[in-house]
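SAMPLE LOG
Freezer: B-3
Tube label: C17
Construct: single chain, 97 aa
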Amino acid sequence: MKSIFISFDQVYYEQVQAILTLNHVRGFTGWESVIGRGSKTGEPHYGTHAWPTLNTAIITVVDDNKVKPILEALKELDATSNVLGIRAFVWNIEDMY
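STRUCTURE (predicted):
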């Protein structure tokens, strides 16, 4: 099992949900308002007057074979804009109940 943490501009929420649904991912936990700044490009997302946009984050636990198609779909979505941004990180899950 793997955990995928996805941080993305709020405008992508429906598309990220669709990617998870298309890959038969039902369970996830999400945070609606996440602040951040990209490591290479893009505008800061601080939810302030100067930088009003925010990010959203989702974490899910999936079977190993679902990771690659999800990451590929997220990368394809990320390529649609140089400003908005999506990042996904994968961790091994040692145990769960």
